[in-house]
Amino acid sequence: MTRVVVDVMPKPEILDPQGQAIAQALPTLGCAGVRSVRQGKRFELEIDGVLTAAQRTDIERIAASLLTNPVIEDFVLRIEDDDVVDTGRPR
Amino acid sequence: MTRVVVDVMPKPEILDPQGQAIAQALPTLGCAGVRSVRQGKRFELEIDGVLTAAQRTDIERIAASLLTNPVIEDFVLRIEDDDVVDTGRPR
Predict the structure, then answer these.
(1) Chain B contacts of A86, Cβ < 8 Å?
(2) How far is CA A25 from the centre of its chain?
(3) Interface contact flag, B43 A33, Cβ < 8 Å
(4) ipTM of the complex in this document
(5) Separation of alpha carbons A66 and A87, rounded Å
């Protein structure tokens, strides 16, 4: 089983009212020294078996179009828990 | 500058309708083999200078109470971009 993580964050030049609200609340909650907070989304996709190159391309396309609003958001895609190496041999 | 990342995800036993909707849409969008999708939140907190132990405790408390709904969500806290080592000496 392979886990693909897609982190979607607002672009740096985009205002993030949710993050700003959290940052403004922190000092009154006893948490000082936080300069800024940004809030984004995290998607965890579980793939059966090993992630193939074609699947990775598909998921990148989905991440860029369905999971991310490319006007205001950037995404980063990571492969986690990829503990099986694709040897190309049937298992 | 230190970046603290808080990943908030629905607990495994909690239904995630947003993630399920994405997972159900994927095959029709040409993305096969994805067993499940979970959607959560990602917070990036920027701290001036080095993260102290007291600040870390504060942020863990905030993550557990303000950023996470402990009834339905779990969180993971990570320190990133911590390229300055706190030697305890004034700089």
Answers:
(1) none
(2) 25
(3) no
(4) 0.86
(5) 31
